[in-house]
TrEMBL record:
<keyword id="KW-0472">Membrane</keyword>
<dbReference type="GO" id="GO:0015833">
    <property type="term" value="P:peptide transport"/>
</dbReference>
<dbReference type="Pfam" id="PF00005">
    <property type="entry name" value="ABC_tran"/>
</dbReference>
<dbReference type="GO" id="GO:0005524">
    <property type="term" value="F:ATP binding"/>
</dbReference>
<dbReference type="GO" id="GO:0016887">
    <property type="term" value="F:ATP hydrolysis activity"/>
</dbReference>
<dbReference type="InterPro" id="IPR003593">
    <property type="entry name" value="AAA+_ATPase"/>
</dbReference>
<keyword id="KW-1003">Cell membrane</keyword>
<keyword id="KW-0067">ATP-binding</keyword>
<dbReference type="GO" id="GO:0005886">
    <property type="term" value="C:plasma membrane"/>
</dbReference>
<keyword id="KW-0547">Nucleotide-binding</keyword>
<dbReference type="InterPro" id="IPR003439">
    <property type="entry name" value="ABC_transporter-like_ATP-bd"/>
</dbReference>
<dbReference type="InterPro" id="IPR027417">
    <property type="entry name" value="P-loop_NTPase"/>
</dbReference>
<keyword id="KW-0813">Transport</keyword>
<dbReference type="Pfam" id="PF08352">
    <property type="entry name" value="oligo_HPY"/>
</dbReference>
<dbReference type="InterPro" id="IPR050388">
    <property type="entry name" value="ABC_Ni/Peptide_Import"/>
</dbReference>
<dbReference type="InterPro" id="IPR013563">
    <property type="entry name" value="Oligopep_ABC_C"/>
</dbReference>
<protein>
    <submittedName>
        <fullName>ABC transporter ATP-binding protein</fullName>
    </submittedName>
</protein>
Length: 336
């Protein structure tokens, strides 16, 4: 497949709720996001902001007690995956949309070699030529700096964290998926291995003509590989735009706070300032108003009662009352 087959993705008004003793509480609230074909989009935010829930929604893989309550996830060539179920949904997962899980060891079966798991994957998707599948897997692993034959003959415990992460990337790509989601691909890896994984992500993305989504809490990772960047807080996308613009001139006070909190290797080390307070949980999420207001230095009276609508100017979108009057009137509720 060439780059022209890289699919676009349009998330519209997506709401995901989880059943709790206090009722159904939203983990995502009316999220809109567009992934342009052939691009790498990053999603950043603190733990609990909804990043992984959004990523799982691309596979319609939110598990009970969670469910997708409203909205759509349109993927070119597949339609709205929220409406898929049964065999149609199973065929999408893996073959059409590849997913690399945050904890690579949790996605591998400790009782089977990588090769046996690869064959199981091929059989589950009715791959006719399993020998060709194994050859493709060896080639992919080799391009990622591994001995493909050895890795396929290994169990999970015989591989390092970086090797398991590369195995996860191989399994996500070997069926020729052209939309790939990577959930925290460099977590718990040393700096050299992180750099290797990011290089692999970039190279494979361009060579295979992918549309890629990377979930991360690391601004450095986002700056290194992404074309556009979405910032999430409290189950909402609060800012989105080209990565260089979002990181170079952040508009939302939450994005500004995240960047101020990054430790520096030179200059005044006291310039790094932690965000005050803590991010909301499902149980402490405000029922109305801006979800960031308790930690926001720009808080106004309207923030207590009105959830800020996303406002777009050029390629940038921001959802904040304090900066909304500085940009053009809001368009449809989406992030493009």
């Amino acid at each position: 497949m060439t780059e022209s087959f890289a699919p676009g993705v349009r998330v519209r008004d997506l709401t995901v709720v989880y059943k709790t003793p206090a009722g159904e509480l939203p983990a995502l609230a009316g999220v809109g996001l567009t992934l342009a074909p052939g691009t790498i989009t990053g999603i950043v935010g603190e733990s609990g902001s909804g990043k992984s829930t959004l990523a799982l929604s691309l596979l319609n893989a939110v598990q009970p007690p969670g469910r997708i309550k409203e909205g759509s996830v349109e993927i070119d060539g597949l339609g709205d995956v929220v409406k898929l179920d049964g065999e149609d949904l199973r065929q999408v997962r893996g073959r059409k949309v590849g997913y690399v899980f945050q904890a690579a060891q949790n996605s591998l079966n400790p009782l089977k070699t990588v090769g046996k798991q690869l064959l199981d994957l091929g059989r589950s998707h009715d791959v006719a030529d399993l020998q060709a599948l194994v050859r493709d897997a060896r080639e992919l692993l080799g391009r990622m700096g591994l001995d493909g034959a050895r890795v396929l003959d290994s169990h999970q415990h015989e591989l390092s964290g970086g090797m398991r992460q590369r195995v996860g990337i191989m399994l996500a790509l070997v069926l020729n998926a052209h939309l790939v989601v990577l959930d925290e691909p460099t977590t718990a890896l040393d700096m050299i291995t992180q750099a290797t994984i990011l290089r692999i992500v970039r190279d494979v993305h361009h060579e295979r003509g992918l549309t890629t989504l990377i979930i991360t809490h690391d601004m450095g990772v986002a700056a290194e590989v992404t074309d556009s960047l979405a910032v999430m807080y409290g189950g909402r996308v609060v800012e989105h735009g080209p990565t260089t613009e979002v990181l170079g001139a952040p508009q939302h006070p939450y994005t500004q706070g995240l960047i101020r909190a990054i430790p520096r290797l030179s200059g005044d080390i006291d310039e790094a300032r932690a965000l005050p307070g803590r991010p909301p949980t499902l149980g402490t999420m405000p029922r109305e108003g801006c979800v960031f207001r308790e930690r926001c230095p720009l808080r106004m009276d309207v923030c207590d009662t009105v959830d800020p609508a996303p406002v777009t100017r050029g390629e940038r979108t921001v959802a904040c009352h304090a900066v909304g009057h500085q940009v053009s009137p809001p368009r449809r509720k989406e992030y493009a």
